Structure prediction request, 358 residues.
Amino acid sequence: MLSARKAVQQMHEYHPPLAGRKGLRLDFNENTEGCSPRVLARIREITAEDLARYPEREPVEAIAAAYLGLPAEQVLLTNGVDEGIHLLCEAYLEPSDEVIVVTPTFSMYEIFAEATGATVVRVQCDEDLRFPVEKVLAKISGATKLIAVASPNNPTGGVASREQLLAIAKNAPGAALLVDEAYYDFYGKTVIADVGTQPNLFVARTFSKAYGLAGLRIGILAGPREQMPMVRRVSSPYSVNAVALLALPVALADSKFVAAYVLQVKAGRAQLENDLSRAGIAWWPSEANFVLMQIGKRHCDFVAAMRQRGILVRDRSSDPGCDGCVRITLGTSEQTERLLVALRDVVPELKLGAGVSA
Prediction:
C-alpha cells in the first residue's frame, strides 16, 4: 500500500484562516492599498504570447541584484519567501540534522524542516519577546545545519541586530543561517551586504508586504557566491511565473509609491501604539507593519467585535508565549483612522484595559 514518508505524516500543517475575509484587511500583514498603479498598468499590457512562453528568470534576477547591490550570481528569484525556505531545507538538511527556530515566528520554517525529517530545535523568545541570542548560541551543536531568524519577526515585530546575527553565523560555520527580512521596508536595517563576506549567510526578501504583490508570489533569496549554485540546483527554473517577472522591474522602479506607503504605515503604527498605551493595553515595540498586543482572555471576543465593524485582525493566542495576544496590521492613514475609531468603541465595550479616550 502506498504511504507517504514518515516525516511527512508527522509534520505540522499550516492552514491560514483566509476564508471569508470581507472587510478591511488588517489580519495578514499585506499591503492594504494594493500595488503601484504603474505595476497594474504593466500587467494590463501583458499579451497572450507573454503567457504562452515559459518564464525567463535570469534577466529579472539581474535587475533585482543591481537593486540590492549584489552580483547576479548571488541572487535567486523565488516563489515568495516560502520557496526560499524550502530550497535551503532541500539543499542542506539530512534527517539526522537539527534546525534551530526562534519561536514564536513564521510557521513555514518548521514545516519545511520537518518535511526533510530533520529535528526542529525550538528556542523561545525571552519573556519580553526580545530576540534570545544567548539561548540560540547555546543550542548550536555539530548537528545544527540550519538556523532561521525572522528580523523583523512575525508576530512580535522584534528584531535581531546585525551584531547578533553575525555572531550566530560565525558560531555555526557548518550551518546555513537564514535571515528572513520580509518586513525590511518598514525597518530599514539589513544584513544583505554581508552575504558577500559571510560564507553561510542567506537573506530572504519578499514583495508581498510593502510592494503589494502578495498574489503574484515573488521573493528573493540572496546568499554566498560559493553556495548559491547548490541552492539553484534544487530549484525549478519556472517557479516564478511570467506575470510576476514582468511586474517586478516596474515595482522596483516605483520607489516613491513604496516610500509613501511605508511612511503612512509607520505613522499609523505610532498612532496605534499611543492609543493602546492610553487604554492601558500592553503592546510590544514593532519594526514591522503590525503591532502585537495583549488583549487577554477576551481575545476571541475582540477579534469578533472588530470583524462586526468591518475590520479583520489576527488572533495569535496559539503562538508560543502569546496567550491572549492579537496582531493588527497597519495600512494607509485613512485606514488607520478607521481602525482607531473602531478600537475606541470596542475596548470600553469589552472592558479591556482602562478604556480608550477619543
